[in-house]
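Q: Lon protease homolog 2, peroxisomal, please. Structure only.
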Amino acid sequence: MSSVSPIQIPSRLPLLLTHEGVLLPGSTMRTSVDSARNLQLVRSRLLQGTSLQSTILGVIPNTPDPASDAQDLPPLHRIGTAALAVQVVGSNWPKPHYTLLITGLCRFQIVQVLKEKPYPVAEVEQLDRLEEFPNTCKTREELGELSEQFYKYAVQLVEMLDMSVPAVAKLRRLLDSLPREALPDILTSIIRTSNKEKLQILDAVSLEERFKMTIPLLVRQIEGLKLLQKTRKHKQDDDKRVIAIRPVRRITHIPGTLEDEDEDEDNDDIVMLEKKIRTSSMPEQAHKVCVKEIKRLKKMPQSMPEYALTRNYLELMVELPWNKSTTDRLDIRAARILLDNDHYAMEKLKKRVLEYLAVRQLKNTLKGPILCFVGPPGVGKTSVGRSVAKTLGREFHRIALGGVCDQSDIRGHRRTYVGSMPGRIINGLKTVGVNNPVFLLDEVDKLGKSLQGDPAAALLEVLDPEQNHNFTDHYLNVAFDLSQVLFIATANTTATIPPALLDRMEIIQVPGYTQEEKIEIAHRHLIPKQLEQHGLTPQQIQIPQLTTLDIITRYTREAGVRSLDRKFGAICRAVAVKVAEGQHKEAKLERSDVTEGEGCKEHILEDVKPGSISDTTDLALPPEMPILIDFHALKDILGPPMYEMEVSERLSQPGVAIGLAWTPLGGEIMFVEASRMDGEGQLTLTGQLGDVMKESAHLAISWLRSNAKKYHLTNASGSFDLLDNTDIHLHFPAGAVTKDGPSAGVTIVTCLASLFSGRLVRSDVAMTGEITLRGLVLPLLVNM
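A: Structure for Lon protease homolog 2, peroxisomal:
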């Protein structure tokens, strides 16, 4: 058989000075390039070179830090390793640097340094033979017993590891397939050794000397593994596997050496993260992605910015509740009682929740409905969502969407961006820890739109029961099942919700409360809550229902109960002051043994003059409990009534009627006034009216003129022709507010009929609705 000539490296090599470790032939190492000389070497040779020889470098271990950029070339170690640059990765953050993946080929000796700038180049002499087909049998004969002894220790070390790990099994096969002269360098680079020990192996040019120096290192690692296995024998098999895979998972990472402890802890975290991925119940697709990312993470240096991003991504994937859920409480009777205790009225809404429970009891695989509560502020839409979660026994999470104008808030950022993070949906699932919570999408009608996208369009996939079982967040880039999530959206109006999004939700109207309902809510919920917040008890303060009615009618005008709740808070604060002052006076009286003034007691009722509650602060004795809040006390605490009952006063003459105007805040009443005077039959309209409302006024006067005889309507001269020598002025107060719409028709007709008939309109009736030329009042259809 003809001999094969050895492979030669170039006689001139550019020198790469490294301070992160010692590269041995046959091993692979990542090294960071950030010094001026090394940066120039990478740019000139690796990035611009085209031949294979341009990727061969001379790697010299350097004890001084090359980042110092000294003007003179530091002393060079005489022996280095010729290496092949396999991969180059560059970054400009936080400063320009490269990361090289290099593989050692053979040893060389520096004969002469040819130049030092911009990077060192030296004439070298190759020390190791590089043969494509080495003569293994000849090597074994030359080394004899020394080679067999080394091979025995190497096999013993590898077999102490977990052979089920692919890397360990591959290493075991390499022991038999690789030439024996390459094994000392490869095993030295894998086991834990100090840089000084690796440098000694690098300097060992003689193969026999290399075997003699490596055998004690193998024995030391074997003894270290035996000791660790003995001390950790009580741990579970998984923990043993954590110990076993360390040597082959990362270069220079076998227990029992002098490596940095922080690196050990970080590597332990990665191993535990890998264990969590294996034991998690995530879908197969997500599991494949995690396995791929964990393999990338192991090969990635911690200094790379992508290292933290990848680790954060894997931690999120592990923490997500892929298959973790809570069990619904399906007791219909208990759910009805709980809803009734938490909320008064809202029958339609509570009925829908009970229907969902009933169907869920019959079919466990029911998808979560997409509900949308539409109503004015303060009627309890958000608190109802929390009560629904409490009724079902589910976790609750609120997502405020008011002002959101970036679709990434819903679908997350792609991981290519710095500071990327998942969307609010995925982040909420991570927070609650289950995959079937109740998500409250608050203020869905106040979503914005900007150059960053339309979040309302991003919600289309989330709120579609036919699509959200396969929701893909841009950050995860893996499908997540949202079909078991119960989504509840809240809105004040549907006018600003896009039609496509509105079509995906089941609209449930939540109307404003009547006076009777507000009284019940106040005494069931609001007053007890305020008493608890202010440290008062029912034995110290009493608020009769008549007083509550006065607060509702004279101090608030709203569809909900938020202002009413604040009024009760103001009353409780005033009473708290009186109670605290009374306790102080009582203590003072006890100290001074004052006996007079026993008949002077404070009682906030008719005994107190309209002067105010503060007039009683000079009384000698503390107030008598409980303090009763009546109308005089209300005037003292809350001030004069904000909404006096002006309705009856304004309707004390003909030609005035009350209409109802819809607003997103729940609506309000609107007066319509009419007067007549001698003239030429003209109709004057004032109050910033729109075209539709003007047409309603002309329609109303036409209908009244055609039915004047039927309803005995006459003008000032007694004629049934209402506009005969008569001008009519129709006015809508609050002239600074623009008004329009057809629903004022019936109010205008009533106002004009009152004017021409001389009869007063009832002060306790308000009306709304469009009229036709035939006198029909059409039902009100408002896009709420």
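A: Brief note, in case it's useful. The CA atoms of residues 37 and 118 lie 6 Å apart.
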